[in-house]
Records
---
Amino acid sequence: MIKNTAKKLKTVAGGKGCEGAYKNLAVQFEKIWREAVRATTGGMSKKSHFRYRDSMTGFLRFCVDKYHLEKLANIREKHLRAYVDYRRQAGITEKTLKNDLTAIRFFHQFTGSRNELPDNRSLGIEKTLQGVKDRAWTNEEYRLMVEKAVGLGRQDVVLAIRLSRLAGLRIHECARLTVGHIQDALREGWVTIKGKGGRVRLVPVQPELRAELEHFLDENGGARERKLFVAPGQKTHQVIRSIEKFIRDHRQEFTSRAITPHGLRHSYAREEFEREVCDSKDRQHIKEAKLNVAELLGHGRPEVTDLYLHSGKK
């Protein structure tokens, strides 16, 4: 793995003079990579780990070529600012740039560095509200997709759609749920979810969600450790792909939009925001409502809520 990382780092521009620096950083990064994966397995998907890895590798190539960086712990503000300028000159979108910066900050926390990296605002990264498509499902799209899944006997799709719509869960978060999680949720009044980066959040069990969970236990039950979606011998990623494929294959039957499972989180966010705000015009109240919704979504930053609420209103 170290040899492969070194090869990736060498492929960009530097040449033979940077070969030693590339190899040195590759060794350091492999150690941090293993620690990061170990610390966040279960809280972050394997796909996200490798996507972050690719973004970080590109950043390290830049740092070696431009600054002859030798230690990951020495990454600081000047490197990020220069990288932002470099990526913009290459025509990279703000959204992609934000994803790259998220990956850099993710691995930076495992370097032991005392250098604090600047946030997106101080780097001049724009919010990606302009031109963002409305991804939230309409009530009609939600109803028809559920009916389709019921008609074809895909109870796993039905449950995943309902959990995403009524609790704002990501598909991979649904896939981790067990019978024990449902039993605890009905007893305590909230679902405990471990999301991206190992971030734990508590999602209230609203009446409609409670009815759905109670119905599931009545129909299925089982030992506490039994997973709701992944049967013995199945692979989690295969289950997730199957649910995503079902939605992708049948959405054109009743909508012209490319709705995705993630869009159900947008629908959930709007409903919870409206529940929090209740037509209030008070700015502080609205800000607090956005923060509360962000927490329910597993983000924790009120500005993230704007992306989910995007519908022509602020």
Note: The chain has two domains: 2-108, 141-262.
---
Amino acid sequence: MKNILGILFILSFVVGTNFYIAKRIYQGAIVLFPNISVLIYAVLYIFVMLLVIVGYAPHSYKLKNVINGFASHWLGSFVYLLILFLIADIAILLGNAAQIISSPLLPNIRFWSALIVVLITTVLMIYGKYRATQIKHVSYDIELKNSAESGELKIAMISDLHLGASYSVKNLSKIIQGINSLEPDIVCLVGDIFSDDINLIRNPVVVKELFRSIKATHGVYACLGNHDGGLTFNEMMRFLEESNIMLLNDECTIIDGRFVLIGRVDASPLFGFDGLKRVDIADIMVSVNSELPIIVIDHNPLHIGEYGKEFDLLLFGHTHKGQMFPGHLLLNYMYVLDYGYYQKNVDSPHIIVTSGVSTWGPPIRIGTNNEIVSIAICMTGE
């Protein structure tokens, strides 16, 4: 019953908000095109909505990439059209109630407000698309005091490549160059390497070559994110192996005889990992040398609470920091940490959440950055 109510709520929201946006755009268009047919306009708008839905249905991959590209751009526009139209209409309502705006002026006010909203949305989309091509470097210095020996480890960390989504492959060469410029000891890919279907990657041979060109003293490691599954899961696994990326599925490995690295399976894959399930962290720790510093790569920071003082550093992605303003405001209520660095107290693990190195859904960034993270770990001994 709850599932049915949830589906009905989502459908009502989607239909209602689209009707509202369609109506407000029409109120502006009718002034410029007084002879426009309501029926033709409605059919065109519904056709656009169907394209957005069909973009996620199976068909030829070439067509799917085109439709997905259109759908993702529309979704980004939809968010800002809805927010800006609501702001404009609240302002009009208050102005009318305060008798600042008279009723005869309302049609003209609605036209100009619609025009301004569309123009602002267009500017935001252009700006957001530009931001989606830019990559920032973020660095953290972590001091560990629970080691029996001194030493250093440099980690290059990225997450949420979403290969197959817009800009993901176009930016990959720049991303790899950025990683190599850090001269890391290890590279950690913290989930969502793919975007649900490996066949969406247009140049898989080139992508593998780029991955193999990563220069890291002790190798490249990855964990699964919620988009790294589905019907092509096994092909994804082969792809990573052929790219010289070591996937840790609730497994651990020792780095340079000095650090333990654990990679977690994501708990909520959208389309499954071909039967692979996340195991309890206690089961993994049975085979872990607890005398060494323990680093964990785990895609979703919702699982921060699973890790106690026996862990030293936790690396997460997934959130994109909201990707588009005001998304980060919502994430503040969902996560203990949705972005950046956090340590509860001196006995707690250090935690880093990255905003990711690419986009998902709308291929835009507003108020957030694509980033490559550099982590310098210094062991001071006891």
Note: The chain has two domains: 2-131, 136-380.
---
Amino acid sequence: MPKIKSPLLHIYADEHIYEAARFLKPGFELSTYSSQPDFSILQHYSALFVRTVTQLNKEIIEKLPKSIKYIGTASAGFDHIDIEALIEKGISFYSAAGCNAKAVAEYIQIALLWWSLLEQKDLKHKTIAIIGVGHVGSQVAHLCENMGMKTVLYDPPRQEKDDSFYSADFEDVLNADILSFHVPLNSSTQHYFREELFGISNFELVINAARGGVIDESFLLKALNSKQVKQCIIDCWENEPVFNTELMDKAFIATPHIAGYSEQAKLAASSLIFSQLYAELNYDDSLIIETFQSSETTDIPNVSIDNSFDNGNKATTAFSYFHNFLEYDLQLRAISFLDRTEYSKQFSLLRTQLPFRNEFRFIKIPDSILTDFPILNLLGRKID
């Protein structure tokens, strides 16, 4: 029998932690909350599992009841949690670092292909500077290189810790055509993209699928207006769930912080935080539940793209088989006309309403789509 320090451990979790009940083991009890946890009842629980929408700062953590011994976030990033405050209070912390690296990289990849198609840009003649080469940045670099792009990998902190990694010079970053951010948000990266550092550069495209505060949005708007930055793709916003509608209007693609959303990434996030809890409790029965690695292939109907559509609609249909970023973009722009209170609420809802996509390796695509849009072959899918 598995050994558990407590005969029954109560977990209080965000209801949007994907299929959390699937990972629940005997001896554990799960209750869920909507939107934000009810802090007044936390004394009845030993573990709290949250998402990025829940802020756990020092003040909140200091007031947590003694019953809370474990806190996990079903996200790769954890800038919404004061880790030092958790350590001071003796609370164990778990994150799902790396869970969505493939999903974010695929978002960048297909967004670049969409940009290439509509703007008639040859990616094989473009250089992309990747700021932050951890789990996500490494995946982005791999996929971009597979598409024939030249990559500039910039991550001085990693170079200090990893003897096998060499960070490019910042001058090489400034000379790139495309800039993509993949750093955590902290005191060093807050407003990393700002006039003092990038005011003398010119980019064809700037991408933020990391954290909103990494980019100084006022500077980006200024750069877009002056054509110093030609276009941008924004998935993360500085004041989420309030988002900058002026920046959205100018963005080539604007989405509500969903780059890391995929069926496999969400299952991985849930699996990782539960498995870390079980490991700490010496619950030695199947610690890592890798259900997300064995998802069945999604069969997509072999629907031809009607030639009566104009090229734009045909392309939209073709790309939508792979990824729902265009639907998110459409819906985000639709809610931007609401008043600030309402559109911020709808921003949060939009992140949970659409079904999660499958990552590319789990998708079967009809021959006709790849034949009509050969650029999609760069996604690395086999033509079935």
Note: The chain has two domains: 9-95+263-293, 102-259.
